[in-house]
Amino acid sequence: MSATRYSATTGLVHEEPLLFEQAHEQHEAMALPGCAAEEAPSPLASFLRQKPAGIPGLSEPEVVRHFVRLSQWNHGIETGFYPLGSCTMKYNPRVHEQIARMPGFAQAHPDQPEDSVQGLLSLLFELQQALGEITGLPHVTLTPAAGAHGELVGIMMIRAWHDARGDDCRRTVLVPDSAHGTNPASASLAGMRTVELKSGPDGQIDLTELKSRLDDRVAALMLTNPNTTGRFESQIAEICDLVHQAGGLVYGDGANLNAIVGKARPGDMGIDCLHINVHKTFATPHGGGGPGAGPVAVNEALAPFLPVPRIERQGEQYRIVRSCPQSIGPVFGSIGQVGVLLRALAYIRAFGRDHLHRIAEDAVLNANYILHRLKDAYHVPFPGLCKHECLLTDKFQNRHGVKTLDLAKRLIDLGFHPMTIYFPLIVHGAMLIEPTETESRRTIDAFCDAMLEIARACEKGEVQPMLDAPTKPFRRRLDETRAARKPVLVWPERANGSSADRS
Amino acid sequence: MTIPEHLLYTKEHEWVRIEDDIATIGITDHAQEALGDIVFVELPAKGRKVQAGEAFAVVESVKAVSDVYAPVAGEVVETNELLESEPEKINTDPYGEGWIARVRMSGDKVELLDEATYTTYLEE
């Protein structure tokens, strides 16, 4: 197969030192005139900096080139295919950006009078309603600023619900060993004790294990459905019944909502509370340090505990309600990350109520297409159809001394962002591939061709390119072990180097 | 992969060496191999009372964070502080310098396997 089949090639990329390393003492981007007026004595004088702040001296073009050069080292969904399992890296339509940047939205102030932002509030209210309808959990808060923040808020509400019933000994949260790492972290941050549930041999929740862990101290089970092996928890109704009978609630991690949106509703399955990663299911930008949004949807029982402020409709008017007696209180500085929430509503509106199910159908179809094309070349730990992501392992390639990490690095040389590797933790050498609904068959075929070419090379014993990979990107294989053992987190590096050691 | 004859093993891939009432505990060669390069070890506090089967230490590798379960109930009397600065000892010498903790036993144990049974268990 010729090398031109894949888009990755070489090009001129610039090495780029840190801004601090480039700084010249004489340079500055802005030359401000001196102050002609006499300085008045300041009550804050004792707080004034005595020495320069150490901001590097650079000209404006140097600063611009620095960040543009760094951006050229990057790979994003707008550079190429990005099949990161469990992350739903779908394309974010350009029209979302136009909407979010409209002056009436972008320049609205969180403390502006309600009467002056009725249009914006009406859209946020519409989003609440839409998310309530999509999840089958009709009461929604838009304020949490990320998925994990939503988890924390959800567990805080569950805790408040138990406490309000006088059942204040419930401080245990059950978390399957296949869960996203944020689940136990969020529960711990909410003051709960987490207990791990071992998955059954099929990667699903083991009902016997679940029953053995349920007691009068269990506040909630946190689960993801479909779970992180890309399978629907087929016993979900029974799981929810068992937890409810034991006096607990079921928290749903909405990370994999893309697989079921418009087809099945977590509320109908018996889930009491669910966060929604709008950056996954509803095509808002991922990460980069924010801003993000992680709305939480709950049933009637948990509704009184939703955080404030809330957006309510009173007649024809939309109101921001800042005080509710049983609320867990504010969890964020305003009604939410408005720009992100508007993008989510735009995606929902683009499909409309009648066509939202096509998101899930195409996402699941694409994942199964990849599974079908790769299932003979790579080991499939759980046979049968998958949902929105397919799970493979490196078992066949291990025979040739090639591991998941090598396969992932080799994909980079062929121009694709690697899939999620070594997750879920319950599957040895896991490779979790999620194409999403926004990729064309041509792109997916090119990815499958690359995967098959890698597998064939392994079979032929041509493993050196795997072990050397990646060779094409600007940075070669990074020493992850050293980066984790001896992270350098500050500049300048301290003279003895030991301060950055993790101990 | 080595599985020394003189040790006992758990299905969670810990090893135990029992001398009088003291159990020395670590993770097996198979476990370190599966985890990959270990970058951090969270040791239990000395004096901590543990139940058999309770998670009492954490090992973190570039791939994953894993609990280490106490195979025996008792009190933690000694921990391997070398691992705080050199966690890689678990990779290079899992049954020797990579030991994790010593527990003075009192009461319960989880099911412990001998070398032959653990070898068969790994093959399954």
Q: How would you explain this protein's 3D organization?
A:
The complex is a heterodimer of chains A (503) and B (124). Chain A is an alpha/beta fold. Chain A starts with 18 loop residues before the first helix and ends in an 18-residue tail after the last helix. In chain A, a hairpin with an 8-residue loop joins strand 11 and strand 12. Chain A has helices at 19-22, 60-72, 94-100, 103-106, 118-135, 147-164, 182-189, 207-213, 236-245, 266-269, 278-281, 338-351, 357-374, 395-398, 404-413, 441-459, 464-468, 480-485, and strands at 139-141, 172-176, 193-197, 218-224, 249-253, 273-275, 296-298, 310-314, 317-321, 390-393, 420-421, 430-433. Chain A is built from 18 helices and twelve strands. Chain B is of the alpha+beta class. Chain B has one domain: RNA polymerase II/Efflux pump adaptor protein, barrel-sandwich hybrid domain (OB fold (Dihydrolipoamide Acetyltransferase, E2P)), CATH 2.40.50.100. Chain B has helices spanning 29-35, 82-85, 89-92, 115-123; strands at 8-9, 14-19, 22-27, 38-42, 49-50, 55-61, 65-69, 72-79, 101-109. Chain B starts with 7 loop residues before the first strand and ends with a helix. The chains are: A alpha/beta (503), B alpha+beta (124). The A-B interface holds A 181, 196, 421-422, 425, 428, 480-481, 484-485, 501-503 and B 34, 37, 39-40, 55, 60, 62-67, 84-85, 87-88.
Short key terms for the protein model shown above:
heterodimer; A: alpha/beta; Aspartate Aminotransferase, domain 2; Aspartate Aminotransferase, domain 1; 7-stranded mixed beta sheet; 18 helices; 34% helix; B: 124 residues; alpha+beta; OB fold (Dihydrolipoamide Acetyltransferase, E2P); 3-stranded antiparallel beta sheet; 19% helix; 40% strand; globular
